[in-house]
Hints:
Blueprint: H1 6-16, H2 20-29, H3 34-47, E1 59-67, E2 70-78, H4 81-84, H5 87-103, H6 108-112, E3 115-116, E4 119-120, H7 121-132, E5 137-145, E6 148-154, E7 164-170, H8 175-188, H9 200-216, H10 224-239, E8 245-246, E9 249-253, H11 254-261, E10 265-272
Antiparallel strand pairs: 1-2, 2-5, 3-4, 6-7, 7-10, 8-9
Helix pairs in contact: 1-2, 2-3, 3-7, 5-7, 9-10
Function: Associates with the EF-Tu.GDP complex and induces the exchange of GDP to GTP. It remains bound to the aminoacyl-tRNA.EF-Tu.GTP complex up to the GTP hydrolysis stage on the ribosome.
GO molecular function: translation elongation factor activity
Main location: cytoplasm
Amino acid sequence: MANYTAADIKALRERTGAGMMDVKKALDEANGDAEKAMEFIRIKGLKGATKREGRSTAEGLVAAKVENGVGVMVEVNCETDFVAKAAPFIEFSNKVLATAISSGAADVEALLAVDVDGKPMSEVVIEAGALLGEKVAIRRLARVEGTTVDAYLHKTSKDLPAQVGVLFAIDGDNQEVAHDVAVHIAAMSPTFLSREEVSPETVEKERRIATETAQAEGKPEAAMTKIVEGRLTGFFKDIVLVDQSFAKDAKKSVGAVLDEAGVKAVGFARFRVGA
Length: 275
């Protein structure tokens, strides 16, 4: 007769994020000893690590923190939402963020090479996957600096950790406006900070499409320049942060809001899990 209860199974699943059958098998092997079962799950996970290499990691979370004018944000992925909300995965993700902050790593490749308790972060990732029974990956890392930096994390589901994260920096001291724009970025998904960041090739392509579309619609040649420029302006409003209509007041652009506050945007990053 099994020397454990349904409550023991639930507790171990919450600790490890492992599947029910894996947990039951581990408890069977350990004769109900939760700590030995944890070791069994980890060993089994390490043996199966190579089998997980090709799996998709579309779930996970975004974690971010600001210290001394520097915002750091990471996206850490796993295979299922069950693991994404498990305490061990959240603890691991917090460790990844802390290491990114303390090391000053500029990208994921550099972060994976950082020594963590005597081993590279790349090995820590494999061990985390072994414990959780799923492929785990550090997908993205961003660093944003400014006089004021706001980190905004948004939950798309109350049952899951943050799925959207934003870092936004300005050149002045105004935390309120920095936060408001960070929330805007989370909702409106701009791609660029300013028009200057959009490549000339992209602008020329959009200009050509706008021209050919207007011609196909039979627009008068005399008004063609104005029509094309108007459509280009619309294009910029979709992808450029400072050109977008401000989420809290659509009558103003984000750029106008920043101008009124006497500050300028200097950088942003936006992550959405799996996107």
